[in-house]
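pipeline/complex-builder :: batch 7 item 3
reading input block
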Amino acid sequence: MEEILRVEGISKTFTLSKKQQKIEHTHSSHKVAVDNLSLTAYRGEIFGLLGPNGAGKTTTLRMLATLIKPDQGNAWVDGCSIVSQAEQVRSKIGFLTSELKLEDFFTPNYLYNFFSDLHGVDPATAAARKKTLFQRFGIDKFAEVKVANLSTGMKQKVSIVISLVHNPDIIIFDEPTNGLDVLTARTVTDFLQVLKDEGKSIILSTHIFSLVERLCDRVGIIIDGKLTHCDTLEAVCQGKNLEDRFFEIYKELKGDQE
Amino acid sequence: MKNNVGTIIRKEFARFFGDRSLVFTSVIMPGLLIYVIYTLMGSFLGDKVQEKIAKDEQQKTEFISPLTADEEHLLDSLQEVRSTAYNEYEANLGTSDEDELGHLLGNLIPMLIIMLLFSGSMAVAPTAIAGEKERGTIATLLVTPMKRSELALGKIISLSCFALLSGLSSFLGIILSLPKMLNIGAEEADQLNLALPYQTSHFALIFLLIVSTVLIIISAISIFSAWAKDVKSAGTMITPLMLFIMLAALTPMIGSPSSPLLYLIPVYNSAQCMASVFSFKVELLPLIITISANIIYTIGAVIALAKMFNSEKIMFSK
Ligand SMILES: Nc1ncnc2c1ncn2[C@@H]1O[C@H](COP(=O)(O)OP(=O)(O)OP(=O)(O)O)[C@@H](O)[C@H]1O
Ligand SMILES: [Mg+2]
């Protein structure tokens, strides 16, 4: 098995403003969002990062995508360091998270071409790829409709397609089915399977157990910024279903404290 | 190398020109508004100019009318003497007019130009930077392998073009309404042009100064906008900058700088140089200092903006 992603002891602490302290119901001015997290993902597999709200999933993936820097530790995406080779990392990955928005004013068609240009994809390749991706997600009918006038589901589909303009080998998706109806969610998960079959490596975060069970080869459980378990789905589940196993783990961890 | 700066500029142009209301409010309206306001103002202000012209006419007839009452044999010689005197008077009148008008324009027009460039910049820059940050669209750009400096440069170049267009529109508004404002006809406007011998080189200098001023103003507003978390707070943060720019634009009324080093102060330097061009007192050294200082500041601003785009504290703070 070839390593595609190696994370070694990354940590991230945020400084909280007074306003945030109120929102988070805390008096401490710092929040450890990710705490000394290490994991390995392999080529051609789907890795699922599973955790409750506020566990640190998005923060972890943002560090991998080089949007934010870890306070400690390092990670290598296909051999490139997220700390010292950010640009190379960005050209290797397709990243999707809800904070990445598309400009309302433009059409999917325009945005696709624009991001293809930024990624340096040659126009002929870009056009062919656009055609297949737009068809697969049913975007072709909306190709000339401004993003502002698209439905939530269609926006998410366009976001997915835009994140893949450069045909990346490594795909990092943060809760890709969030806010989507079952039909649209299904289109997305089916597509992830297709990508896997094409030999892509996928890292995704979610709090939906069934998604992990259906798609993932390997799973990491993250609670309060710490990775408590990280192994193949079978090894983590120990013969139980994932949901029961998760609550067991959660109780083990939290039971001691409360 | 991929031309990412060009890609960004093309996108910004498509955004700007694709949005009719944006083009209307930032390009068409300023010129139109100025034209209408100045034309209206002209009907009041113009009376004063008419009074002055009437007074001049009166003086002219005072010189000439006594001649008709003179003795026949004295007429020729006297007329000769008097008309020489009158010619001298008129010549003096001419130069003093030129000085006065040049002085007035020299003080007023730089202020107008700078204020118009500032308002043009405010119409385009905060939405393009703080707005993109607020809406989360800049994050989408930041996950591409594009260099932050390319994004910064692309933004500053395209925004400067829009601010320049907006400034140009206001400028046209002024030029077209100027004859109306002074309440004079086309013939007299031609005479005014003769009285103020601006040459192509003057306009070229003014254009250079305008471009370098736009770059400086857009740079400053862009940096504040990148710092702010949304368009609204960008507006608040820019208020002190606006005061500084207004004061700097007003300084030609007070006087010109005592030391060439003062031409290192942005906006102040542009205002002073524009004033010197309009009042025919162009000096090379201040001009060179001004334009090169402005260009160096703009390069500094592009670097600073790129650093800001790269800073998670600035781009992703909650
Ligand atoms: N920029 C920030 N400033 C301050 N605190 C932050 C920031 N980003 C995240 N946090 C905090 O860090 C913790 C982890 O957040 P994160 O978004 O990574 O969780 P998550 O697992 O993605 O949760 P969710 O399921 O809600 O998306 C949370 O307590 C969050 O409030
Ligand atoms: Mg999240």
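note: The CA atoms of residues 89 and 236 of chain B lie 55 Å apart.
queue -> next item
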